[in-house]
């Protein structure tokens, strides 16, 4: 049940999103001289800081000096949190719950975001989105996942420096085999996971919900539906699973409620070994056919 | 469918949806990169061109001239280069030539070196041989020197041997001569013995002569009623048997007679009655015997049957049987007159005994010595009973009373001391009486005064009870010349006689102190004086061995 599903895992890793990055005019560069929007494909598991890193060379080539600390992105005026994976960010804005008023249309592809080089909104998003900071953020998420899984952060802490760098670099460069050669050590279950590292995201400024979800026991494997019911009993009434309105979405696809938690945790997790699930409403026009 | 299949299907659909723009985006990216590249290159070219343009438009005319100059320079350099090539080829040729010469020279040098090495070898051999020769010659020199040295040493040794042989010869000679000498000496010795024997014989003859002489005297004396007798070398005058014919008289009666005779008048003689030249040696003292019949002299070198040195004082005992002689050999000897043998030798003094006296009983002898002591001797035991320490050497002593309980001694320190013989303590020290050493003390016949003679050329009579000088005698002609010069009272106490250093006898009146008579008779200093107890004769002795007898009973005719 907890075996690796290579096909699923690879597919998840290879998921990419097309982006259109529009240069927002700054003080020094007026709107007349702004460069054209740049089209780029970026991995779902990647982060915005890494995007900045990729765009840096292009923009310097175009004669625009960038400082990674001052670069931030927004979608429809909303500053994007750079410490979320890009796939998660897209799902957040693409699958909103209809009750809540949204800004404009649903996110279409390519995802049009704006890049800013000044006026960093300190109050809205975290400061200093450099590569190093992003790496630290990633590592801390990894440790948290490890702790939830095994009760100690021993595996992450005992990782050699080479392994750490390899892990990060493979994420940066998108090398699947290298990443998984290290990550499988972290996911190996000497004993079954105590808790499943899980986060639920409600769109529009709801803070992510993280609750302790116990791991699988031998007799009674937990399903996603059970976890949902436990955490959000209003949205996922336990008695009638067919009838509930909300759908858990991960990696841009709805998550069947009968998926075992352990299997999902091993195969469907993001780069930081967490399951970042967005709750969406059923029946919205989001291209999902359920 | 299982959840897995559902998921997979959903994911595939998603991918199809989201990846449709892939190629377009890639193409876009490529174009973008290309554009960036072109832009960069454009910028570079513009920069380059602008640089070029700026330099070119400014220096156009000057450039042409520069080019001309450069062309000229180039031509010149070409020419120089051609010349250089030429010189280089010449140098190369010269180099080759030089190399050949060098090779030839090296060959010749090698040959020469070879020859030189051969020569050096020869030289070395020669040198080594020369060295060897030199060393040999040196050795020869050294050896010859040694040889000479040895020869010299040999010669020296020969000389030494010669010398030794000579010495040996001389020593032999010496031995011979010494043997001869010793023989001679033995002969001489024998001769000397002979001579000595002869001398002794002569002596004997002389003695014989003397006896003869005295035979004559005896004849004379017989006329005077006295006899002369020789007792062991001592000349003694004795009353002739005719006057003492009656032997039955008791000694007491004799004494009385004697004492009565003492009271005969003393007449002072004016010339010598008799004179004898007596002894071989010097005379030290003279003493008349108690009986008046004999006088004894003590003399130098007289072996009076035992005394080894000079006799300084002579005393007769009261019975005339014993004679006491005090000697410079620290001993006092008693001779028995009848046998002529020593009865006692009283030793104990550690200095010369200058005076010795019998006491009245003849059982004690008192002696005074230069060891500053007086010793009382017991004649029966023959040892010293008492030693009295006097502070000065005693020159003369006399008995203070008949028993000898008190002694009077005259000393070298100019003092007269009176001693108690029983206790040994001094009774009186009389100092200051004389200014020079006392030479004799003599008791007066009355027993109350003492006559002292001193080297300060004065005689004094001292009263023994008051210890005062009663009378003192001196004369211009009187000089006390001898340390043991004796003076004496006359038996009646009227006169005092002493001998002077010039041989003149001086007699003073003891009461008045006037010099009664000074009689010449001696040739030398008078040393001893003794008045016969009967008062008839006065004996005097001088240092030139002459004894004079003065008749004081009869007046000179």
TrEMBL record, chain A:
Pfam families: ATG5_HBR, ATG5_UblA, ATG5_UblB. It is a peripheral membrane protein. Residues 132-188 form the Autophagy protein ATG5 alpha-helical bundle region domain. Residues 195-279 form the Autophagy protein ATG5 UblB domain. Conjugated with ATG12. One of its GO terms (molecular function) is Atg8-family ligase activity. Involved in cytoplasm to vacuole transport (Cvt) and autophagic vesicle formation. This is Autophagy protein 5. Belongs to the ATG5 family. Keywords: Autophagy, Isopeptide bond, Membrane, Transport, Ubl conjugation. It is found in: Preautophagosomal structure membrane. Residues 12-117 form the Autophagy protein ATG5 UblA domain. Its main location: membrane. One of its GO terms (biological process) is piecemeal microautophagy of the nucleus. One of its GO terms (cellular component) is autophagosome. PANTHER family: AUTOPHAGY PROTEIN 5 (PTHR13040:SF2).
TrEMBL record, chain B:
Residues 240-249 have a biased composition (Polar residues). WD repeats lie at residues 304-345, 346-387, 403-429, 431-472, 489-518, 519-557. SUPFAM superfamilies: WD40 repeat-like. Residues 60-119, 161-202 form a coiled coil. CDD domains: Atg16_CCD (cd22887), WD40 (cd00200). Gene3D superfamilies: 1.20.5.170, YVTN repeat-like/Quinoprotein amine dehydrogenase. Residues 7-127, 132-208 form the Autophagy-related protein domain. InterPro entries: ATG16, Autophagy-rel_prot_16_dom, WD40/YVTN_repeat-like_dom_sf, WD40_PAC1, WD40_repeat_CS, WD40_repeat_dom_sf, WD40_rpt. The keyword Phosphoprotein does not apply. Keywords: Coiled coil, Repeat, WD repeat. Residues 235-256 are annotated as: Disordered. It comes from the Eukaryota. Belongs to the ATG16 family. This is Autophagy protein 16. It comes from Phycomyces blakesleeanus. The lineage of its organism: Eukaryota, Fungi, Fungi incertae sedis, Mucoromycota, Mucoromycotina.
């Amino acid at each position: 049940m907890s075996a690796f599903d290579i096909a699923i895992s690879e597919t998840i890793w290879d998921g990419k999103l097309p982006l259109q990055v529009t240069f927002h005019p700054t003080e020094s560069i007026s709107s007349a001289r702004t460069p054209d929007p740049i089209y780029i494909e970026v991995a779902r598991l990647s982060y915005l800081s890494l995007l900045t890193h990729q765009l840096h060379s292009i923009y310097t080539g175009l004669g625009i000096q960038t400082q990674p600390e001052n670069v931030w992105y927004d979608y429809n005026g909303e500053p994007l949190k750079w410490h979320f994976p890009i796939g998660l960010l897209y799902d957040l804005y693409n699958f909103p719950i209809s009750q809540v008023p949204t800004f404009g249309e649903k996110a279409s592809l390519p995802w049009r975001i704006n890049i800013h080089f000044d006026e960093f909104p300190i109050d809205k998003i975290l400061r200093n989105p450099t590569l190093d900071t992003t790496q630290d953020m990633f590592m801390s998420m990894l440790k948290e996942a490890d702790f939830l899984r095994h009760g100690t952060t021993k595996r992450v802490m005992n990782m050699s420096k080479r392994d750490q760098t390899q892990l990060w670099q493979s994420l940066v460069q998108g090398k699947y085999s290298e990443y998984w050669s290290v990550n499988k050590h972290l996911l190996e279950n000497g004993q079954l996971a105590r808790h499943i590292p899980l986060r639920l995201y409600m769109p529009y400024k709801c803070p992510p919900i993280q609750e302790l979800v116990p791991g699988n026991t031998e007799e009674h494997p937990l399903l996603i539906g059970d976890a949902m019911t436990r955490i959000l009993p209003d949205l996922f009434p336990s008695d009638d699973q067919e009838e509930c309105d909300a759908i858990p979405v991960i990696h841009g696809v709805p998550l069947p409620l009968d998926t075992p938690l352990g299997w999902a945790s091993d195969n469907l997790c993001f780069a930081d070994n967490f399951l970042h699930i967005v709750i969406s409403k059923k029946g919205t026009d989001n291209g999902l056919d359920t | 469918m299982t959840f897995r299949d559902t998921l997979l299907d959903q994911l595939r659909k998603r991918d199809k949806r989201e990846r449709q723009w892939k190629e377009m985006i890639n193409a876009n990216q490529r174009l973008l990169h290309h554009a960036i590249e072109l832009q960069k290159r454009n910028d570079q070219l513009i920069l380059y061109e602008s640089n070029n343009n700026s330099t070119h438009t400014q220096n156009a005319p000057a450039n042409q001239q520069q080019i001309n100059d450069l062309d000229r320079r180039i031509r010149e350099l070409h020419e120089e280069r051609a010349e250089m090539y030429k010189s280089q080829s010449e140098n190369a040729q010269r180099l080759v030539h030089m190399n050949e010469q060098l090779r030839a020279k090296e060959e010749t040098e090698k040959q020469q070196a070879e020859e030189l090495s051969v020569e050096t070898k020869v030289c070395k051999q020669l040198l080594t041989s020369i060295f060897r020769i030199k060393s040999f010659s040196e050795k020869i020199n050294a050896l010859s020197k040694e040889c000479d040295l040895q020869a010299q040493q040999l010669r020296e040794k020969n000389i030494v041997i010669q010398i030794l042989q000579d010495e040996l010869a001389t020593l032999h000679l010496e031995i011979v001569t010494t043997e001869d000498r010793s023989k001679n000496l033995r002969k001489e010795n024998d001769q000397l013995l002979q001579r000595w024997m002869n001398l002794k014989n002569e002596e004997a003859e002389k003695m014989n002569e003397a006896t003869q002489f005295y035979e004559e005297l005896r004849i004379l004396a017989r006329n005077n009623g006295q006899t002369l007798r020789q007792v062991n070398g001592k000349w003694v005058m004795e009353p002739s048997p005719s006057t003492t014919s009656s032997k039955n008289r008791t000694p007491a009666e004799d004494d009385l007679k004697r004492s009565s005779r003492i009271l005969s008048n003393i007449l002072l003689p004016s010339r010598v009655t008799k004179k004898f030249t007596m002894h071989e040696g010097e005379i030290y003292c003279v003493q008349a015997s108690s009986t008046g019949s004999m006088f004894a002299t003590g003399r130098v070198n007289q072996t009076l049957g035992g005394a080894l040195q000079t006799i300084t004082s002579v005393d007769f005992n009261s019975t005339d049987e014993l004679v006491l002689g005090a000697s410079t050999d620290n001993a006092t000897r008693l001779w028995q007159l009848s046998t002529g043998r020593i009865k006692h030798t009283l030793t104990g003094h550690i200095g010369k005994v200058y005076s010795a006296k019998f006491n009245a009983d003849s059982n004690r002898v008192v002696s005074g010595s230069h060891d500053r002591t007086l010793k009382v001797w017991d004649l029966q035991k023959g040892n010293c009973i008492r030693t009295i320490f006097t502070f000065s050497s005693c020159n003369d002593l006399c008995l203070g009373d008949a028993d000898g309980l008190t002694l009077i001694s005259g000393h070298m320190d100019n003092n007269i001391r009176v001693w108690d013989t029983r206790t040994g303590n001094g009774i009186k020290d009389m100092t200051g009486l004389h200014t020079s050493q006392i030479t004799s003390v003599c008791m007066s016949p009355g027993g109350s005064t003492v006559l002292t003679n001193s080297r300060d050329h004065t005689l004094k009579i001292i009263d023994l009870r008051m210890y005062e000088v009663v009378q003192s005698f001196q004369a211009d002609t009187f000089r006390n010349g001898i340390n043991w010069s004796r003076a004496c009272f006359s038996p009646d106490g009227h006169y005092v006689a002493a001998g002077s250093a010039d041989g003149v006898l001086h007699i003073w009146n003891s009461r008045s102190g006037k010099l009664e008579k000074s009689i010449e008779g001696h040739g030398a200093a008078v040393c001893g004086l003794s008045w016969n107890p009967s008062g008839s004769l006065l004996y005097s002795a001088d240092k030139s061995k002459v004894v004079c007898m003065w008749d004081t009973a009869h007046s000179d005719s």
